[in-house]
Amino acid sequence: MRQLPSLNMLRVFEEVARHRSFSQAALELNVTQGAVSRQIKQLEDYLGVALFIRTPQGLSLTESGTALSPHLAQAFDHIERALQAVRVPNLRQRLRIVAPPTWATRWLSAHLRAFVQRYPDISLSVTNQMGHDSLAEIDCHIRFGLEAAHHCSSRLLVMERHIAVASPELFNGEQPPDLRQFPLLHILHDGKRLKVWENWLAAMGREDVDAGQGLEFSTLDQVIHTALAGGGLAVIDRQMIVKELANGSLLPITPVEVIGPYGYWLDVANDKQGLSKVRLFTEWLSVVSNP
Predict the structure, then answer these.
(1) Which of the residues 1, 131, 190, 258 has an alpha carbon 20 to 30 A from that of 173?
(2) Three-state DSSP class for 54?
(3) Whole-angstrom Cα distance, residue 236 to residue 285?
(4) Residue 80 reports pLDDT greater than 70
C-alpha cells in the first residue's frame, strides 16, 4: 500500500506554491482561506518540515517546499494526461444550475455564449426550481437573498442597484411622471413585498408618496413588462434592464440609485466543490459578474 497523504492536501499545496498566496489558492479552489491553511498545516505535520515562510515581500517557499513543488506539479501533470488518454473523447459533463427566473433570463442567458464557447465539453441545465428529489443533483444554486448561506460554500456575486423607471409615454416631455399619480409596481418574494420602493423613497427623502399603493407581481419579469406597457412605475435592479435602458424603452425617473440590501449569491454544496465543472463555472461566473 502506498504511504501518501490525501490528494486534496497535495492539490492545496500545489495551488499555494503556484500563487504564493493562501487567499488566491482559496479562491481558485473555492474554499475558505482557513481551510487552505489547515490543509497546509496537516501536510507540514505529515512531512515534519515547514513548506512556507512569510517575508516582507509575501509568502515564500522554504527549501523543502521548493524541492517538493516541481515534482508535485509534474505528478499532477502525469495524472491529468493519464486520465485524458482513457477518457471518452468529447464526453460532455452536465452542470445543473438552479437560478431565479428573471436573473437567468435577463443576465445569465446574455452571458452564456461566452461560457459555452470556452468550455464546449460542459452541458448546462438551468432551472428555477429545486425540489427535494433533485437536491442532490444540483451543482450550483444562484440565490436571491440578504446574506450568505451557512450550510455550504456561499459567496456574493453582485448586489442589486435599484433605480426608479417608467415608460417614456408617462413622461411629459422631459418632465418625469409624478410618483403620486401612477400605480407603483411591486414584486413579491417568498409571499411578501420586497421593500424596494420604501428604500428608494427614503433615499429620495420623499415622505409624500404612499409606498403601499399599487400592483404586485410574483416575478420581476412581470413588473418589467407592466412598466414597459405604461402600467405603472417600477424600482428595478438596473442590471436586469440593461437593454431597456439602452434603447430608451424604460427611462430613469431620477438618477438616484440605491445599492442592496439584496443581492445574488452563489451557493455550492461542500461535496460539489471539488468537481472541475463546478470550479470552472464558479470561476467564470465570479469574473463576468464583477467586470
Answers:
(1) 258
(2) strand
(3) 22
(4) yes
Dihedral angle, C-alpha 173, 178, 183, 185, nearest 10 °: 80
* Cβ contact 90:121 at 8 Å: yes
DSSP annotation string for 201-262:
HHHHT--SS-TT-SEEESSHHHHHHHHHTTS-EEEEEGGG-HHHHHHTSSEESSS--EEEEE
Q: Count Cβ atoms below 10 Å from residue 268 Cβ, excluding itself.
A: 22
Mean per-residue pLDDT of the chain: 86
> Dihedral of the CA atoms 35, 39, 41, 45 (nearest 10)?
150
CATH of domain 93-157+264-288: 3.40.190.10
Residue 115 has pLDDT above 70, yes or no: yes
8 Å CB contact between 59 and 52: yes
pLDDT in tens, 15-71: 899 889 888 888 877 778 888 899 999 999 999 999 999 888 889 999 999 999 999
Residue type, 142: I
Task: Tell me how far apart the alpha carbons of residues 32 and 118 are, in angstroms, rounded to a whole number.
Answer: 27
CATH of 7-86, picked from 1.10.10.10, 1.10.599.10, 3.30.559.70, 3.40.50.2000, is 1.10.10.10
Count CB atoms within 10 A of the CB of residue 227.
24
Q: What is the pLDDT of residue 105?
A: 87
At residue 132 the predicted structure's pLDDT band, cuts being 50, 70 and 90, is: very low
Do 177 and 185 contact (CB within 8 A), yes or no?
A: no
Q: Is the pTM higher than 0.85?
A: no
Nearest to 239 by CA among 126, 103, 100, 98: 103
